[in-house]
Amino acid sequence: MMIEALIAVALVGAFVTFVAPNRIAGKLAFAISLIPATLSLWMFAAFDGSGNALLDGELAFASEFEWIQFGEYSISWLVGLDGISMPLVVLTTILSSLAIVSSWTPIDERESQFYGLVLFIEANLIGVFAALDFFVWFIFWEAVLIPMYLLIGIWGGPRRKYAAIKFFIYTNVASLVMFGAFIALVFGLGDVTTFALPDVTTAMLNGGPDGFLGIGGTTLASLVFVAMFLGFAVKVPIVPFHTWLPDAHVEAPTPASVLLAGVLLKMGTYALLRFNFTMFPTEVIEPFVIPIAAIAVISVIYGAMLALAQTDLKRIVAYSSVSSMGYVILGLIAYTQFGVGGATFQMVSHGLISGLMFMAVGVIYNATHTRMVTDMSGMADRMPVAVGILVAGAFGYMGLPLMSGFFGEFTIFFGAFGAEGLAYSQVFTALAMFGIVIVAGYLLFALQRTVFGPYHLETDYDVDRAPLHDIAPMFVLLGLIILLGVAPELIFEMITDAVDPILETGGEL
Amino acid sequence: MALLELPAWTALAPALLLALTAMALFIIDSIAPDSRNSGLLAGTTAAGSIVSLGVAVWYLLAGVGTPTVDGGRGVIDVLGNQFVVDQLALFFMVIVAVVTALVAVASYDYMEDHTYQAEYYSLVLLAATGMSFMAAANSLVTIFIALELASLPSYALVSILKDNRGSVEAGLKYFLIGALSSAIFVYGISLVYGATGHLQLENIAAVIEAGEVASDGGHEIADVGGLLGLGILMLIGGFAFKTASVPFHFWAPEAYEGAPAPISAFLSSASKAAGFVIAFRVFTEAFPVAETASAIGVDWALAFIILAIVTMTLGNFAAATQNNVKRMLAYSSIGHAGYALIGLAGISAGGGELVMGAAMMHLFVYGFMNTGAFLFVALAEYWGVGRTFEDYNGLGRRAPVACFALAIFMFSLAGIPPLGGFWSKYFLFTGALEAGLLVVAAALVINSALSLYYYSRLVKAVWIEEPAVERETLSQPVGLYAAIVVAAVMTLALLPLFGPVADTAVDAATAMLA
């Protein structure tokens, strides 16, 4: 019942905060969010699962109830954690708490509604990672959209209405495609009468679908694979479905960006891992290996090039997310222990690092009211601590050893280089590694112009040191990034434990 | 079971209690005719409908209508089978009672300054009584009487704002179209009677199955197939009026727009549901698909397939072009009638109980989300903010709780997951697939996707847009707020608690189709 408790605390907290007076809403929401954060850390320590949740693994904190019976199909409440979802749940609760603290300065109207929505998103994100029945998962998955749409639409920047509706339409259409595909798959499986992901996985790996609506079994499996890949690709996002991301990020208020980059993008990669790369046997994946690897590499390079061309700090960080997600896809398609494990590790690591970067940019924006690289220089002079953290975060992005980004990217490259199922794996890996060079290029270039040199600011504001509650969450994130960089086995062990069964049952690509 | 030992007529208690409460209001009104004590009147109305709701739920839980061990259907017959109380009847009695209670509570504030308060509440209750009887009516005569009992007070209610031109005009239009469709309906009844010699639903079915009328010299049903077919078509016309479906839908936008908003809520939720229950009962009991088709030459399910697709498409496209919020909701209500019609379209196929059950679930959820949406309009009228989307801009700043509830209603109507509306639409979709109605299922998905446009437009207006005019703090009328919050909580709560609703609906449909 621990997972239910986590979700319930966040949900009830959301409603309480929603009706609380604006004055205390921020503090109240933070206090409430500490409960799931502490609870999830305790769960992390007490984690006793093993194996993969979809492949007969031993689930931690699992619970199951009959929910709805309709005809022969039954829908159950089924939640549980394995080595892949546990770190992501902890990432969600911690980032939510920190995002709430980082909103104290920038959010100055309709606070109770803002913090209520943030807690509501947190509850649903936990649900997305913990749910193991398709319907439970899908409900949480969709429930994230509406509050995020409102966060961007109400508290966002000048073009917020456009950005909010673009985000909503892109991700909703993608969800519809994916939903339809999965339902067709379950109906096509014939003798499966539940929507529980483990049951569907077992049936898929033991024969696959018989066909549906006149479409043959093998064709159906391939079609569903493609449709679900496209559905999740929008969420990740992968080039060419990435255009909603910079708009949403730039217009979103800082805390929403933190959650968006830190956790929401991971929903897409997590779902790709859970559905596309766990559920489908290797015969189905095989024809798509080269195209997916190519898309991954294009995302890496093209995302980084786009970042290089930006002059808005937030846009730079946003595009670099596209690039980083490309690494994750490359790791997944490599289909080796280091590839898939590294990709999962990179999800957590990128969540921390991008969260940190968005917070740092947000702090600078709070003081200067501009994010344009050309508008400022020498910020280190006035905001030494905030800028120091920004630089540290940038190094994390570039993959500096002893920070988590290094371990994530290194394992992905290591896993991808030797991937036997991936033809030309060395070429793909080498091209992707070139992305790192570009990352270093645009980050250092932007930093050189903004934080170093003589102090100068185009906008007319007094820049002072940032308050403690702006700085503290960034220190926590930096600490976690270094901790995972020094001791990656903290989570990498449980990740590989959950990843290995996928590779064993799926067979060689 | 103890319940079955009560006198049989007590099975109609949910409907009788509503009638009794209406009588109680007459007494209160005759004692204090000039009283403006709306608390007493609204309270009595709400209490009466809540008791009716409680009794209906109690009967359902006690197992009325559940097949018994000895093979009986567990159905209670009243007045020589003129009324039957089974799960189908009780399910819809619950919907009617819920909507009546919500409307009564909301009217407490909305009608505060109006005259004719006692008349208003008693008319609401009498209409509700008629709808409740419609749920149980089992012969074409009682169906017609119950339908008129529901309709006549509705005409008066739509035009109760006597000094308001829109309200009177809406009432007149509603009355004229209602009278016309009643005439068509009753003529259809006479044709069916002429062809089969019976008014009782199961007797009609028996004659059609036997293929001949034995008495009065007797004749083959196939010889009067055209007569019977025309009769059935006219009956469909009567249902279409009551459920606001094509081709008798065009009264709905005017009537809903002109009527006091709580009455719009009442008509679009309860009255629509009542229209559907008679359609379900008549077409499952009286006209067995295969035999009727061979007698009249056409499968009547085909008519409903066409009506479903046309109704949902027309409703949605018209709703998308509206600027007036109430009219948008009126057209959306037509669209939802189209979704529920899928239940009738799919009955004939294998697995028909699933799609009919799904339609019942949809009407149940709709009873909360649509009532709530119209009550929000009532609240906006109470505040006097105007009628268009632009007038609603920025309300979220002043009234976050009510606007949060509105967002719940809108996303639920659109069928977005974390809300009750998602389940019923999903089940309609899979039910239609199981019944082999691919085109209908596709139309449902496309229309749902389209509907998101205009539903989210309202959410965007209240939450994201800047207010056009500066507003003072908006008042918080207790009754309207309570009704809206309850409807919102139920719309949310139906997500986890959908299991019992789904079971009851599918059981009821299975019993009807057995």
TrEMBL record, chain A:
<feature type="transmembrane region" description="Helical">
    <location>
        <begin position="427"/>
        <end position="447"/>
    </location>
</feature>
<feature type="transmembrane region" description="Helical">
    <location>
        <begin position="347"/>
        <end position="365"/>
    </location>
</feature>
<dbReference type="GO" id="GO:0003954">
    <property type="term" value="F:NADH dehydrogenase activity"/>
</dbReference>
<feature type="transmembrane region" description="Helical">
    <location>
        <begin position="468"/>
        <end position="487"/>
    </location>
</feature>
<dbReference type="InterPro" id="IPR003918">
    <property type="entry name" value="NADH_UbQ_OxRdtase"/>
</dbReference>
<keyword id="KW-0472">Membrane</keyword>
<keyword id="KW-0812">Transmembrane</keyword>
<protein>
    <submittedName>
        <fullName>Proton-translocating NADH-quinone oxidoreductase subunit M</fullName>
    </submittedName>
</protein>
<feature type="transmembrane region" description="Helical">
    <location>
        <begin position="316"/>
        <end position="335"/>
    </location>
</feature>
<feature type="transmembrane region" description="Helical">
    <location>
        <begin position="288"/>
        <end position="309"/>
    </location>
</feature>
<feature type="transmembrane region" description="Helical">
    <location>
        <begin position="138"/>
        <end position="155"/>
    </location>
</feature>
<feature type="transmembrane region" description="Helical">
    <location>
        <begin position="212"/>
        <end position="234"/>
    </location>
</feature>
<dbReference type="InterPro" id="IPR010227">
    <property type="entry name" value="NADH_Q_OxRdtase_chainM/4"/>
</dbReference>
<dbReference type="GO" id="GO:0048039">
    <property type="term" value="F:ubiquinone binding"/>
</dbReference>
<dbReference type="GO" id="GO:0042773">
    <property type="term" value="P:ATP synthesis coupled electron transport"/>
</dbReference>
<dbReference type="GO" id="GO:0016020">
    <property type="term" value="C:membrane"/>
</dbReference>
<comment type="similarity">
    <text>Belongs to the complex I subunit 4 family.</text>
</comment>
<feature type="domain" description="NADH:quinone oxidoreductase/Mrp antiporter transmembrane">
    <location>
        <begin position="132"/>
        <end position="428"/>
    </location>
</feature>
<dbReference type="GO" id="GO:0015990">
    <property type="term" value="P:electron transport coupled proton transport"/>
</dbReference>
<feature type="transmembrane region" description="Helical">
    <location>
        <begin position="255"/>
        <end position="273"/>
    </location>
</feature>
<dbReference type="GO" id="GO:0008137">
    <property type="term" value="F:NADH dehydrogenase (ubiquinone) activity"/>
</dbReference>
<dbReference type="InterPro" id="IPR001750">
    <property type="entry name" value="ND/Mrp_TM"/>
</dbReference>
UniProtKB/TrEMBL annotation, chain B:
<feature type="transmembrane region" description="Helical">
    <location>
        <begin position="478"/>
        <end position="498"/>
    </location>
</feature>
<feature type="transmembrane region" description="Helical">
    <location>
        <begin position="227"/>
        <end position="251"/>
    </location>
</feature>
<feature type="transmembrane region" description="Helical">
    <location>
        <begin position="355"/>
        <end position="380"/>
    </location>
</feature>
<dbReference type="Pfam" id="PF00361">
    <property type="entry name" value="Proton_antipo_M"/>
</dbReference>
<dbReference type="GO" id="GO:0042773">
    <property type="term" value="P:ATP synthesis coupled electron transport"/>
</dbReference>
<feature type="transmembrane region" description="Helical">
    <location>
        <begin position="88"/>
        <end position="108"/>
    </location>
</feature>
<dbReference type="InterPro" id="IPR010096">
    <property type="entry name" value="NADH-Q_OxRdtase_suN/2"/>
</dbReference>
<dbReference type="GO" id="GO:0008137">
    <property type="term" value="F:NADH dehydrogenase (ubiquinone) activity"/>
</dbReference>
<keyword id="KW-1133">Transmembrane helix</keyword>
<feature type="domain" description="NADH:quinone oxidoreductase/Mrp antiporter transmembrane">
    <location>
        <begin position="137"/>
        <end position="451"/>
    </location>
</feature>
<feature type="transmembrane region" description="Helical">
    <location>
        <begin position="40"/>
        <end position="61"/>
    </location>
</feature>
<feature type="transmembrane region" description="Helical">
    <location>
        <begin position="120"/>
        <end position="137"/>
    </location>
</feature>
<feature type="transmembrane region" description="Helical">
    <location>
        <begin position="435"/>
        <end position="455"/>
    </location>
</feature>
<keyword id="KW-0472">Membrane</keyword>
<protein>
    <submittedName>
        <fullName>Proton-translocating NADH-quinone oxidoreductase subunit N</fullName>
    </submittedName>
</protein>
<feature type="transmembrane region" description="Helical">
    <location>
        <begin position="295"/>
        <end position="317"/>
    </location>
</feature>
<keyword id="KW-0812">Transmembrane</keyword>
<feature type="transmembrane region" description="Helical">
    <location>
        <begin position="401"/>
        <end position="423"/>
    </location>
</feature>
<feature type="transmembrane region" description="Helical">
    <location>
        <begin position="174"/>
        <end position="193"/>
    </location>
</feature>
<feature type="transmembrane region" description="Helical">
    <location>
        <begin position="329"/>
        <end position="349"/>
    </location>
</feature>
<feature type="transmembrane region" description="Helical">
    <location>
        <begin position="6"/>
        <end position="28"/>
    </location>
</feature>
<dbReference type="GO" id="GO:0016020">
    <property type="term" value="C:membrane"/>
</dbReference>
